[in-house]
């Protein structure tokens, strides 16, 4: 469905993020090989309306730079990293990956998608926690973009 010249739809990206939360959660809980997890997701789920390239990038890219990603948000946590809920951890890593590695994803989209993922998968109030942390990370990583958005329209 998606070709190199066609930009993936927001809903296809959203589905890729949802599958990534689940796949990262599985990886964090079991330590199963990422390739095996990806194969399982491709077999067990209908990915026709999913940006599978983005799913692949997130699933394999996030673990490769996990220490860097964690370093961006750990200063804003109100608890130890090890005490963070595994679903929240997966969502934060996706959001911070997008903020730090995917400048084509506007910071507002990265934050909003994190909030929506937390509402979908997380505990009752976790979306507020995710919002606060991703917003603080965006203030560090996307300073120029945030300033440009704050300028009044001429």
List the helices and strands and how they pair.
Layout: H1 10-30, H2 34-44, H3 52-64, H4 66-73, H5 86-101, H6 107-121, H7 126-141, H8 143-150
Helix pairs in contact: 1-2, 1-3, 1-5, 4-5, 5-6, 5-7, 6-7
InterPro entries: NusB-like_sf, NusB_fam, NusB_RsmB_TIM44
Domain NusB/RsmB/TIM44: 14-138
Protein name: Transcription antitermination protein NusB
- Specify the helix fraction band: over 70%
CATH superfamily: NusB-like
Run of helices and strands? HHHHHHHH
- Poorly predicted tracts of residues: 1-5
Number of continuous helical runs: 8
Structural domains: how many: 1
Mean pLDDT: 93
In the CATH hierarchy, what is the class?
Answer: Mainly Alpha
Cα-atom radius of gyration: 15 Å
How many beta-strand runs?
A: 0
Task: Identify the CATH architecture.
Answer: Orthogonal Bundle
Query: What structural class do helix, strand and pairing data support?
Result: mainly alpha
Reported for the largest beta sheet, the result is: none
What percentage of the residues does DSSP assign to strands (E)?
under 5%
Tell the overall outline.
globular
Query: Termini distance?
Result: 39 Å
CATH topology: N-utilizing Substance Protein B Homolog, Chain A
Please characterize this protein's 3D structure.
Pfam families: NusB. Residues 14-138 form the NusB/RsmB/TIM44 domain. By secondary structure, the chain is mostly helical. The protein has a single domain, classed as Orthogonal Bundle (N-utilizing Substance Protein B Homolog, Chain A), CATH 1.10.940. The protein has 8 helices and no strands. The chain has helices at 10-30, 34-44, 52-64, 66-73, 86-101, 107-121, 126-141, 143-150. Helix 1 (10-30) packs parallel to helix 3, helix 1 crosses helix 5 and helix 6 packs antiparallel against helix 7 (126-141). The protein is globular. Residues 1-5 have low confidence and may be disordered.
């Amino acid at each position: 469905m998606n070709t190199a010249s066609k930009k993936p739809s927001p809903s296809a990206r959203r589905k890729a993020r949802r599958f990534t939360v689940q796949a990262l959660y599985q990886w964090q809980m079991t330590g199963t090989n990422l390739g095996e997890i990806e194969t399982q997701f491709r077999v067990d789920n209908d990915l026709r309306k999913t940006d599978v390239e983005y799913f692949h990038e997130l699933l394999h890219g996030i673990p490769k730079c996990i220490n860097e990603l964690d370093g961006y948000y750990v200063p804003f946590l109100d608890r130890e990293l090890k005490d963070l809920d595994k679903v929240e951890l997966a969502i934060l890593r996706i959001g911070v990956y997008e903020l730090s590695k995917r400048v084509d994803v506007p910071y507002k989209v990265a934050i909003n998608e994190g909030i929506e993922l937390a509402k979908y998968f997380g505990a009752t109030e976790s979306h507020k926690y995710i919002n606060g942390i991703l917003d603080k990370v965006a203030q560090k990583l996307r300073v120029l973009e945030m300033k440009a958005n704050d300028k009044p329209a001429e």
